[in-house]
């Protein structure tokens, strides 16, 4: 077992998958010789050759559209989009085709692929490099949306995504790509898609977060502890499908809930989770479910990005609002 | 119009008289199908339909030049070539009747579900061709498009990928002069569609799309080239749709009737009929027999469409995911409780 950071864990996951299954190929801009702008595919072309780790022309719709053709003909493409902020030219392909191939062909064709996209702000990148568009894809039936927050989960979820027969949008929290290391098993293991994880047990409030926001939420939980509030922090890990059972069980235990995300608050995934809790655990609630999200403004230039995304202070404020209702 | 075709190759590909008769029978079958489909829409038996009358030569010629193992990535107007490639006519009627079975080609019929968004199927054809190249298969993939599609980004991205990776893919453009109401001159500032290929290092050829033999030879040539590792080709088949874009459109709003009439005189069906008569292999008797046969074939497909059992409600959910998430299972249960399973009622 090695201690790896999140990006190393992803590289390791890709390597394991490519060794095990020769249908797997990686394609995207700069993924080959350069190893990707974040080095997620470093060393893979040297090991697997330029036919399986393919530098493509600069064309997001082309990358995803070609992956549709590859997938329906039995390959397992892993297209990389350099940044989630660059996913928009490919949205038509994802929404009109990737997500619908199975349904439209009534199972005659399937479109298994793992679309990797680093998401979220916090790395001082230029404009349009730091969006959190997960709600768009959660809203689109036919897709699964996965968002790890740790190296162990990143590798395990990636390998599970590669085994899935449904297409997966795999959002990688670029802010924590290299933030910390943890033990990551060698070889193959999976973390099942669709299962949230209680990463910190608590009794007063359930806090739901994913990806970039998880560690900030854990910091906020420490602040809350100083107030005597034991916050349970749940890492959703999979955003579509949501792990309804774990979410509701946690709320039934604590009676209060807060959702934290980096994406703009309005019509974000937090709204869906609030609705889900209303439908499934209303009578357990001691207070309205709170939301802490990014402000409803476009992802700002980086001089302002720390203000945009929730930090521990803002999350603590959200916790206090729910606790003091 | 067509260039870059090696004469020797073209001669080798020349079709026999029997094949020519077969092509003719297909062309009138497609035309009869198309006219019946328009009437079915008018009488409310199917939904909005996209007619192809006028483009039979382009489609039948293309279909005859391909092998059964080749893959088609069609748009919503490729009924003719799809039928020639093996798609049951009833399936096409079912599609326009809004039924999910209409999207499915039977096993062994290599046709991908119709793409409705413009040009989006072209990167798919590129990916499929890429897969055959990786596997060393002797397969050609054809992406179909109209002239309007050449303005979309996906067209350019697909052409570029095909050129860069030298893929066994054909882009078969039926330039019928209009994208709904917008004429070619407002679609592109280039003289032809074919010349766009040069920008991607792809060969482009332009062919008279109302000449079934010219289309056949062009597609055969390009497919042979692709099979032998020679890479992609953009084929522009110049043709015309006699009717509207769809049954929801009225082409008299944007086209002069003398323009339509002028194109009718170039009708590929009439041209082929004259050739057959000149060769002494066609007669009025064979002509009426051919239309009667076409009518029986089309009627059988219509009967099959009209007598299809009610759609199984489970089809709403069963194929959305390989592994149905719990919330969809819950929604399916709710649907069954409220509406039953459908099918057979």
TrEMBL record, chain A:
Cofactor entry: thiamine diphosphate
What is the superkingdom listed in this entry's lineage? Answer: Bacteria
Arranged from A to Z, the UniProt key words for this protein are:
Oxidoreductase, Thiamine pyrophosphate
List the molecular function annotations (GO) for this entry: oxidoreductase activity
Q: Which residues form the Transketolase-like pyrimidine-binding domain?
A: 4-179
| SMART domains attached to this UniProt entry | Transket_pyr
Q: Which PANTHER family match?
A: PYRUVATE DEHYDROGENASE E1 COMPONENT BETA SUBUNIT, PYRUVATE DEHYDROGENASE E1 COMPONENT SUBUNIT BETA
User: How is this protein named in the record?
Assistant: Alpha-ketoacid dehydrogenase subunit beta
Its source organism is Tumebacillus algifaecis
TrEMBL record, chain B:
Gene3D superfamilies noted in UniProt:
3.40.50.970
Q: Which CDD domains match?
A: TPP_E1_PDC_ADC_BCADC (cd02000)
The record, for SUPFAM superfamilies, names:
Thiamin diphosphate-binding fold (THDP-binding)
Name the gene.
pdhA
Q: What quaternary arrangement does the UniProt entry report?
A: Heterodimer of an alpha and a beta chain.
Q: Which GO terms describe its molecular function?
A: pyruvate dehydrogenase (acetyl-transferring) activity
Residue ranges of domain Dehydrogenase E1 component in the record: 24-309
Query: Superkingdom of the source?
Result: Bacteria
Q: Does the keyword Oxidoreductase apply?
A: yes
Per its record, how is this protein called by name? Pyruvate dehydrogenase E1 component subunit alpha
Query: What is the reaction catalyzed?
Result: N(6)-[(R)-lipoyl]-L-lysyl-[protein] + pyruvate + H(+) = N(6)-[(R)-S(8)-acetyldihydrolipoyl]-L-lysyl-[protein] + CO2
Q: Does the keyword Cytoplasm apply?
A: no
User: What Gene Ontology terms for biological process does this UniProt record contain?
Assistant: branched-chain amino acid catabolic process
Q: What is its EC number?
A: 1.2.4.1
Cofactor(s) demanded: thiamine diphosphate
Q: PANTHER family under this entry?
A: 2-OXOISOVALERATE DEHYDROGENASE SUBUNIT ALPHA, MITOCHONDRIAL (PTHR43380:SF1)
- Function recorded in the entry: The pyruvate dehydrogenase complex catalyzes the overall conversion of pyruvate to acetyl-CoA and CO(2). It contains multiple copies of three enzymatic components: pyruvate dehydrogenase (E1), dihydrolipoamide acetyltransferase (E2) and lipoamide dehydrogenase (E3).
Key words of the record = Oxidoreductase, Pyruvate, Thiamine pyrophosphate
The record ties this protein, via NCBIfam families, to: PDH_E1_alph_x
């Amino acid at each position: 077992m090695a201690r790896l950071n999140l990006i190393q864990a992803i590289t390791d996951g890709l390597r394991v998958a490519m060794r095990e299954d020769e249908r797997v190929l990686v394609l995207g801009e700069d993924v080959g010789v350069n190893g990707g702008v974040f080095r997620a595919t470093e060393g893979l072309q040297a090991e697997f050759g330029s036919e399986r780790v393919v530098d493509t022309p600069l064309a997001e719709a082309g990358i995803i559209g070609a992956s549709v053709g590859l997938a329906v003909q039995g390959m397992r493409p892993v297209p990389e989009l350099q940044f989630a902020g660059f996913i928009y030219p490919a949205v038509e392909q994802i929404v009109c085709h990737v997500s619908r191939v199975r349904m439209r062909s009534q199972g005659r064709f399937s479109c298994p692929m793992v679309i990797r996209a680093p998401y979220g702000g916090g790395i001082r990148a230029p404009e349009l490099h730091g969006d959190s568009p997960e709600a768009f894809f959660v809203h689109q039936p036919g897709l699964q949306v996965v968002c790890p927050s740790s190296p162990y989960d990143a590798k395990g979820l990636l390998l599970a995504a590669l085994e899935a027969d449904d297409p997966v949008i795999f959002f990688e929290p670029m802010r924590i790509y290299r933030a910390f290391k943890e033990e990551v098993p060698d070889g193959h293991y999976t973390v099942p898609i669709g299962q949230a994880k209680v990463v910190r047990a608590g009794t007063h409030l359930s806090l739901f977060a994913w990806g970039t926001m998880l560690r900030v939420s854990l910091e906020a939980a420490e602040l809350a502890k100083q107030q005597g509030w034991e916050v349970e922090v749940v890492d959703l890990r999979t955003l579509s499908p949501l792990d309804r059972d774990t979410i509701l069980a946690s709320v039934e235990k604590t009676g209060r809930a807060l959702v934290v995300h980096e994406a703009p608050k309005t019509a974000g995934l937090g709204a869906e989770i609030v609705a889900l809790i209303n439908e499934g655990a209303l009578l357990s609630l001691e207070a309205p479910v709170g939301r802490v999200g990014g402000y409803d403004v476009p992802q700002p230039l980086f001089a302002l990005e720390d203000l945009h995304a929730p930090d521990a202070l803002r999350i603590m404020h959200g916790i206090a609002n729910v606790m003091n209702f | 119009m067509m260039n870059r075709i090696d004469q020797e190759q073209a001669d080798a590909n020349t079709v026999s008289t029997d094949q020519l008769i077969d092509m003719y029978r297909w062309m009138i079958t497609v035309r009869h199908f198309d006219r019946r489909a328009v009437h079915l829409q008018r009488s409310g038996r199917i939904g909005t339909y996209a007619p192809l009358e006028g483009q039979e030569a382009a489609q039948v010629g293309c279909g005859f030049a391909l092998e059964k193992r080749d893959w088609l990535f069609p748009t919503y107007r490729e009924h003719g070539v799809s039928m020639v490639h093996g798609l049951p006519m009833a399936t096409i009627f079912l599609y326009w009747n809004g039924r999910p079975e209409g999207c499915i080609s039977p096993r062994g019929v290599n046709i991908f579900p119709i793409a409705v968004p413009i040009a989006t199927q072209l990167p798919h054809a590129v990916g499929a061709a890429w897969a055959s190249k990786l596997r060393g298969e002797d397969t050609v993939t054809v992406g179909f498009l109209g002239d309007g599609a050449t303005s979309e980004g996906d067209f350019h991205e697909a052409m570029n990928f095909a050129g860069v990776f030298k893929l066994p893919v054909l882009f078969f453009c039926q330039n019928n002069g209009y994208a709904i109401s917008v004429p070619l001159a407002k679609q592109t500032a280039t003289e032809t569609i074919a010349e766009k290929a040069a920008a991607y290092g792809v060969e482009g050829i332009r062919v008279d799309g109302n000449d079934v033999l010219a289309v056949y030879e062009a597609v055969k040539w390009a497919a042979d080239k692709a099979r032998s590792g020679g890479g992609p080709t953009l084929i522009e088949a110049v043709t015309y749709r006699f009717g509207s874009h769809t049954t929801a459109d009225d082409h008299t709003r944007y086209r002069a009737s003398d323009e339509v009439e002028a194109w009718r005189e170039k009708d590929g069906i009439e041209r082929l009929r004259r050739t057959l008569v000149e060769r002494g292999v066609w007669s009025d008797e064979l002509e009426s027999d051919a239309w009667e046969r076409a009518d029986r074939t089309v009627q059988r497909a219509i009967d099959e469409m009209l007598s299809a059992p009610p759609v199984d409600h489970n089809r709403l959910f069963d194929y959305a995911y390989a592994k149905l998430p719990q919330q969809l299972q819950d929604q399916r249960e709710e649907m069954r409780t409220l509406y039953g399973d459908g099918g057979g009622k």
